[in-house]
Design a protein that fits this description.
By secondary structure, the chain is an all-alpha fold. The protein has six helices and no strands. The chain has one domain. Helices cover 62% and strands 0% of the residues. It is globular and about 50 Å long.
Length: 128
């Protein structure tokens, strides 16, 4: 039986895929600096694991205060790259961040699908 954390993680991926593929979100033009930049810089650095987890949690909460058009394509790619992180909590926070971005994060859908399949395969191996 999968753990509660794995079930929650799976739901985040599915939710992310559903929101990303919904039509109708205007992208707008990006003119101001995104407040996510310093957080993403720290997440992609060689900072200690516990700091990176804290910053991934901060990323997830900060994204709710940012207009989707304020997030650049490069930042979306950086967030989606966090789905390959070795830390499960950072992966979860990245998935939920992409879900909040909705269709603005559409380009991350293939990465989300790949990460979801990887998790499903890992669970299948774990069960055997």
């Amino acid at each position: 039986m999968p753990s509660n954390r794995l079930v929650a993680y799976r739901r985040l991926f599915i939710l992310g895929l559903m929101f990303i593929q919904l039509p109708g979100c205007a992208q707008g033009s990006r003119t101001e600096e995104s407040p996510l930049r310093p957080i993403l810089s720290h997440l992609t650095s060689d900072a200690p694991e516990n700091e990176r987890v804290q910053f991934s949690s901060r990323l997830r909460s900060e994204i709710e205060n940012v207009r989707p058009d304020m997030v650049s394509d490069a930042e979306i790619i950086e967030i989606s790259n966090l789905l390959d992180d070795r830390n499960a909590e950072i992966k979860e926070n990245a998935a939920s961040t992409l879900a909040v971005l909705g269709t603005r994060a559409r380009r991350a859908a293939p990465v989300l699908e790949k990460a979801f399949k990887r998790e499903m395969e890992a669970e299948a191996i774990h069960r055997t």
